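Form 12-C: Joint structure prediction
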Amino acid sequence: MMEPTQSQLAGEVTSQAITSPEVQHPSAIPAPAPAARPERRKKPRIRQTPPEPVPPPHLDDYKGIVGEASIDELRFLANGLKGKTVKMVNSTAVGGGVAEMLNQMVPLLNEVEVKTHWEVITGGNDFFEVTKAFHNALQGSDYQLTQQARDIFLMHNQINSQRIQFNEDFVVIHDPQPAALIHSRDDSRRWVWRCHIDLSNPSREVWEFLAPFIERYDAAIFSSQSFTRQLAIPQYLFYPCIDPLSEKNKELEDSFIQKVCDEFGIDRSRPIVTQVSRFDRAKDPVGVIEAFKQARKYVDCQLVLAGGGATDDPEGAAVLKEVLEAAGDDPDIIILDLPPWCALEINALQRASTLIVQKSIREGFGLTVTEALWKGKPTIAGAVGGIPNQIIHKLTGALVHSVDGCAYQIRYLLTHPDFARQLGHNGREHVKENFLMTTNVRRWLLLLRILAGQSK
Amino acid sequence: MTAAMAPTLTRTAVKPFYFNTSAHLLRITRQKATNLAELLQALRECPENSIFQHTFRTLQEHHFIREGFSNDFAHWALSSCNEPSLAENLASVDVREFTSVAQLRECFVQIVEKFLQRSPVSATRGARETFYFCAADTIVIPTSFVAHSLPEFAEGLRHVSVHSLHHHFIEARLRLRLMSNDFSQWLLEDLGLPDAARQLNRIDIYTATMENVRQQILRIVERALL
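Section 2 - Result
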């Protein structure tokens, strides 16, 4: 098990741990007096720079997690595809969930001898400005589609279709940016469009422009049933997934978890309620503080809001300011603005938590929920986006629709630990069954076999 | 010597038992329901492998839940439509009592029809969440386990995935068109063990996780070995 060395933790501070003097609880029924609070560092030591990338895991590394039988199944499924080739195409090699997923998925497919090649499209600023606007418009933002935007989109797709060879048996195009590459298809190959965004409420103009391209594919893949459009082609459901061996999700030594809590002044002898998310209004961090304050009238607990995005995003900075104002000088609210490479620290915070909250009011799939469930944590989350795919109310977690609902669930789960433990157990099993990297390898292999005419 | 005459420990099966498993891919279909009237319509029109997905398959996907989950229709009726009595009726449908998806579909249609006759006001009341009908595309996969005898069978049972158990123990009745399962059929026909075969069919899959089911099957098989 890898654990960061002291030297990785040491160094100058790059995050803020916002702390304030202790105040009297404003409790209707006073909570029990907390134990002596660990001294909180004004400047917690965290890594200043991103860690070196680690080599991707091999399939056998997952045996201890999903069992040998599951890995054998993958190898058998892959046997039927020996000699077949796949090309994955997306718009970025680094940054973002799609590149992260392809970085893990492509080596695993190659390991089972399904030769998979990953190609990244190129384009100028004009192209990526248009595709960024398309991306937002497809997820509901207002947008006026101009002829110039159409021309830029089509021109860059045309340039890429001349640059990229499509000789593979299967071509998988990720997201709208390269969708018009379908012009390059010939009938001997199978083309799939993998849509990672929510199309449930798109700009009509942008969707009507893109839909004729999409309908020329052999199949489309969506991340949730609710993200789809009516299409004439088969649509498959591939949930996003997490890698249980990544820094964000791997098992940690308790001594490391303790060290992280000590750095941030978190008292592990008292219940810890945590939300991990960017400082973004869609994640309703202020609502979480309100829910926490309501719940704490009845149960002793601390709140940790750990996230990022406040330094490189003006809106994030504004939201962080609102959060700080809402927290006031409450010593039990710990707000951490962490850089994006603090995956191990986030992992430790999640594992140290008694409950995890993700009170989003808008959400994509919600992979922070998946991470929480994987760690066996009772999880309370807003019933939006892909979260209901992960949380079955009262079976794998608790779904909430309001601040009051969130406050009630915090109180209930903190005072019913057996029930909370059962939710955590079920949540972890749900992730093991549906939302791990190995499950996604299986989905890809199944889809390729189905497209090759090998299903029942 | 016939299979039934030798001691169970050393008895060789007439035919070996090949442990298989099945892998499923979820396809999103055209049907969806935003209220109970639409659910009824979609139940009548959806492809058979949609009914299969939301009953047999969902049980497999949630194999780790001991109680409170039966099928997707019941869950939606409660969580999105707030109709506990309908949910109770839908949840009480035991997939093991059906040897064809067509019969199972008819059962769900009748339950919803009867409910809406009793409570017509519920038909068009909007659900909190839309029900999206999915369908399962399936590929059967062999495993490395083959049993020629009861001890080898027990060994296979200990090691195969819960998906393999589901494939042989629950989904099998749709293939066999019998109120039974692959394990019981093999114990009965190829090893001559009718008591063990019968006991397996009495295991309650709705009050146990699939891991619990595996332990119960193993206990019955191990008792037969004594």
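Section 3 - Comments
The two ends of chain B are 20 Å apart (CA to CA). The first helix of chain B runs from residue 36 to 45.
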